[in-house]
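User: Okay, second chain of the day. Same drill as before: sequence in, structure tokens out.
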Amino acid sequence: MNDPGTGGEIAAAAAGDGDHYRKPAWIGFLGKIENGLLVLVLLCMMLLPVSEVLRRMGLPIGISSADNWLRHLTLVAGMLGGMIAARESRLLALSNVSSLLKGRWKNAASAFSGTVAAAISMFLCIASWGFVVSERTSGTELGHGVPVWVLQAVLPAAFCVITMRLAKSAASSWKGWFGIAAGIALIAWLASKPPGSASAWIGPGLGILVGATILGAPIFVTLGGAALILFWGQSAPLASIPLDHYEQVTNALLPTVPLFTLAGYFLAESNASKRLVRVFDAMVGQFRGGPAIVTVLACAFFTTFTGGSGVTILALGGLLMPVLLGSGYSERGSLGLLTGSGSLGILFPPCLPLILYAIVAQITIKDIFLAGLLPGVLMAGVTMWWGIRSGPPRSTTRPFDGAEFGKAVWEAKWELALPLVAMGALFGGFALPVEAAAITAAYALFVETVVHRDLKWRSDVPRVVVECGLLVGGVLLILGVAMGLTNYLITEQIPDRAVTWVTSAVQSKWMFLLLLNLALLLVGCLMDIFSAIIVVAPLIVPMGLAFGVDPIHLGIVFLANLELGYLTPPVGMNLFLASYRFGKPMSEVTRSVLPYLGVRLVGVLVITYLPLLTTWLPGRFK
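Assistant: Same drill. Structure tokens below.
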């Protein structure tokens, strides 16, 4: 199936309005191979942990070194997803400026950003090749006689393909491609033989990179390019960047990211949204502001599993907008409520940003999951309150229909049990975090294919898995290359210097938290949540420790602030997607969401200055 507002629109929204052309048959064939490999890898990632759980229960299944295989399959899935995202021109970017340009200016911006992006990707490919060559001599095996370097080789291979696709998508004629190739060659020549010292070119190099970012270069290019330029300027070995990439993406906890996201995509691409909205409507629709409560509950549920990727607005927008308008909500009020609710759920387990922060800040996933529950309820509550307050003063009420509620719950019982499956597996003591994620994904797949039969095995399941892999690939590309930049900052003792400066300038813990909120709001305006977690979190964690702030509390404050980043221009993802989904100008979407920014900001301050709201549950389950 391909319901309106789900996968088809996600693809269209993310692809932008670039030139389209008929692809040669051989390119289509290669695309099918890539898609098939990605589907195979992600399904294997789902089955391996499940088989380990069953093996511990006494069944004679499973393979040796399953954990090692799973970590390296995450690397393969991330790079395959990145290749497909580059093929579809859907790599995550910070800026949408190029879409505002026309004619020659648009072509020039595309050529410039594409040339820089392709050059950076080429250098990452070369550095990755050097890393694989050095690793090949180690003789390390994954298991069953397979050398580790065989899977590590996906790094240079994928960056090579991404390089060609970035260059290809930056122009639409042979003349344009020739110019881009010449530009890449010029950059390579300057990098190998810079006029003067390499360190003198760090500033200009970073300036060019910023310009390319503003004109639409992908986020991984910005972060990876910054790491390359800084290491190159100090004549440091570039192979450390792919080494950091490899070590970060093969982190033992990272498979939870694609697996929980896969569960969310199975929900988003099925009719689960209709069943869940029916439940929430039957439960609270009879109250004043019932449609607003239904919207908040449905959006929070979906975002929890889709990872704050914007899928919620696309999947639920067409379903909930008529409900709000039919209940007497104004068009602007409905638009603001839907856009504002689209990022709710980020603080609820098992949302992707919670997992990424736990990995980067080196805190347990269980603690961060528990810590986010009450703050998540608060943020949903203040959004509900404003949605009810801004609704029609006298909406038509209806009596509670117990029969309808029972029917709705019975029809959606499998989806309603999904959080219980995820949390039960995680906290029940019989599954590790990665295994809990795999069980959740397998459960969602079973429900939507076998129980409800919303998704067909041959057509829908591969499409949904590829959609998920594409998003995950974009995120893991950012995660991997950003670690090179993060490690450069650590090597240069930037976090230590920042701690020294902040502790000398600020004496009060509470003043530090206030200034941190202001800084994070600015970060949310300029960076997406994934790159902010990788780059900014390592800087603020030492500061929090210096002021005696609980690391778990700091993490929830961090994520609550960045939750607002989805609604703040110029890079608020939900603003762009709502503008696309509802056909409204960005200015109108921004105005509609301002009240929700205000009440959510109050919620952030409550979370900041009431640490017990965050630390109580983790303390109870120690």
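Residues 23-249 form one domain.

User: Thanks, on to the next one.
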